[in-house]
Amino acid sequence: MLAAKHIPNLACGECPIRHRAVCSTCDEDELAQLDGVKFYRSYQAGQTIALRGYALDYVASIVEGTATLERVIEDGRTQMIGLLLPSDFLGRPGRGTLQYDVTAVTDVTLCCFQRKPFEALLLDIPHLQERLLQMTLDELDAARDWMLLLGRKTAREKIASLLLAIVKRTVNPDGKSLGTRSRLELPISREAMGNFLGLTIETVSRQFTALKKDGVIELEGKRVVHIPDLSALMGETGDDEDGGLIV
Amino acid sequence: MLAAKHIPNLACGECPIRHRAVCSTCDEDELAQLDGVKFYRSYQAGQTIALRGYALDYVASIVEGTATLERVIEDGRTQMIGLLLPSDFLGRPGRGTLQYDVTAVTDVTLCCFQRKPFEALLLDIPHLQERLLQMTLDELDAARDWMLLLGRKTAREKIASLLLAIVKRTVNPDGKSLGTRSRLELPISREAMGNFLGLTIETVSRQFTALKKDGVIELEGKRVVHIPDLSALMGETGDDEDGGLIV
DNA sequence: TGCGCGCATTGACACAGATCAAATGGGTTA
DNA sequence: TAACCCATTTGATCTGTGTCAATGCGCGCA
Lengths: 247, 247
Known about the structure:
Two copies of one chain form a homodimer. By secondary structure, chain A is an alpha+beta fold. Chain A has helices spanning 28-35, 115-124, 126-152, 155-171, 190-197, 201-213, 230-234; strands spanning 5-7, 38-43, 48-50, 58-64, 67-72, 78-84, 89-90, 101-104, 108-114, 182-185, 218-220, 224-227.
């Protein structure tokens, strides 16, 4: 088993997530305080970053890469409950353990803060805590969209919603108006999609085949999807307007 | 349509949720500040408290009663995405609209705070913001437990998990060790449970019948449940230990 | 070039939960 | 007390998705 690697810290001025992460509202002085308790760490694709119930002595921002949050029951049933992308926040101030497993799906770089000093800074820097509160509220909204999907959508609607969510985020992360035709590289395996959507891998596969047969999507290999008409895909999500779900 | 009623404020010293709500960590002086922007409001069972996308100019603590948060799609499919019980927090600082509908399921009393001044107090009173952050993180954890339930649990496991969650919240809100036998009054209808769990009302009813036949629960009327052996119920939740889900 | 490995697709069948429909029961009103 | 209402339960049947098993396909490696 590979261990996490310590790597040299990046200066905040060079940081690609400086203006989106938990530190985005901090001034120079406040950044310096954070800098005093920060250290970089990297994980390779497939590595476990944290396990449910085990101590995690830091909280962190994702600088680079993708990680999943998953709950697993003993009999193997697995539900993905979150996806961490660059600028997202990992860990829980005020508690030393997590309720879920965290796994790197690509190589991941973290900007870690020792937990205890970070908690103290939250009280000293109201804007830092305010930013973390807003990020947490956003995550809560996303989780609730996801609950609607898991509880009430059909397999076809789930797949369409997922594809649309990936389009929104990877093709056009800034929310500008979307063109009518999109090419899309799937960042996760069929199995991960199943765990994301509360489906089996076979059902995921069958729905892909069905959407292809109906002309909603075109497949190029297994990992690349073309969407000839985005509004047709939106019509398949089961949502009132635009597909709701934001990953 | 009935309108929300303004009712006289209760003094914080008399407040039944004084030590659990968002204000629980405030001292006398800070309470006085909150008192300046607070007003009580009550809703009758069945009334709409807020609608998705419409402005809500206050945030609030639930003093008494039960309210649901729901997402509804046009064809009528409904997913409950949250349940508000006394001491829970309603509304989103920093944003004037909600993403979901809020409905009173019993008569509800709210301790409301005008939103803008409340947001200012969050920055002035770090402990208030810290408390709200902790409550939001707890909600996020609960939402994630719920996602596991919606995505991967069977109908029987869902019902057992819900019953256990209600036991934890209403019979013993302080987390003291639970006795072996519990009496439990269900705060919501079968339909609401179905919307909570991603099931139809008929399936909910059948699972109640099945759990009764298997001796896991006893019914007294339709709204009261006796749980002769809590650990037996825990064994039905599908969770590793104690049923995870916290409402 | 061919073998093996992992992921994905396809097929046949089973079953949990949905759907449609009818019966029950408790509470409220006249 | 009867009539009605509404939530709930129960029954019969249907169907979407899971399960189990076989096959296909791309890719690295010998």
